[in-house]
Amino acid sequence: MKRIRFLSNRIILCLAVLFIVGCEDKNEKLSWLSSDKDSAYVQIERQLRGFDMAMKEVGYRYNELYFAGIDENWGYAQYHLEKIKTAIENGLERRPKRAASAKGFLEYSIPSLTKTIQENNKEKFIKDFETFRQSCIACHINEKVEFVKVVIPKTRLSPVEKVD
């Protein structure tokens, strides 16, 4: 009886897959991108947007960085600090006018916090993370988005934490 039920379930599954594949519109465009190269570039630029998408990634990684330091998960902290740097650099590629504001952050704040992370010292990390946060705020003021107030994270966004 179990074997018959198993076989009938497999047959139904195969028929459902065949039905779905058979209903596919063969005339549907295979890509959302325009076939014209110039139009496709415009579409891609629109999807990547400006510096705001870079900041979305930075915000997520800032949160992860903080909790990695609190957990003394130094490898994870370093990983996210490097990704913050990459996200900012990629954003600057799209919006080079932001480079002056980001310069201090890239040349001082990130290297300084990198050094702190390498010291594996939680108390120093907490102190230096506050300096890092203040650098974020200063950049936002320079870019006339002072209403974007960066705070110390209160809630974890991912399930990653150091397990001893």
Care to describe what's here?
Helix 4 packs antiparallel against helix 5 (99-118) and helix 5 (99-118) runs antiparallel to helix 6. The chain has a domain at 50-142: Four Helix Bundle (Hemerythrin (Met), subunit A), CATH 1.20.120. It has 164 residues and is an all-alpha fold. The longest helix is centred in the N-terminal third of the chain and has 21 residues, at 2-22. The model has no long low-confidence stretch (mean pLDDT 85). It has six helices and no strands. The protein starts with a helix and ends in a 22-residue tail after the last helix.
In a few lines, what is going on in this structure?
The protein is an all-alpha fold.
Known CATH architecture of the domain at 50-142: Up-down Bundle
Structural class category: mainly alpha
Got a strand count? 0
Largest sheet: none
Q: Name the quaternary structure.
A: single chain
How much of the sequence is in beta strands? under 5%
Give the overall shape, derived from the CA principal axes: flat
C-alpha Rg (nearest Å): 24 Å
Helix content: over 70%
Order of helices and strands: HHHHHH
Q: Which fold name corresponds to the CATH topology of the domain at 50-142?
A: Four Helix Bundle (Hemerythrin (Met), subunit A)
Distance between the termini: 49 Å
CATH class of the domain at 50-142: Mainly Alpha
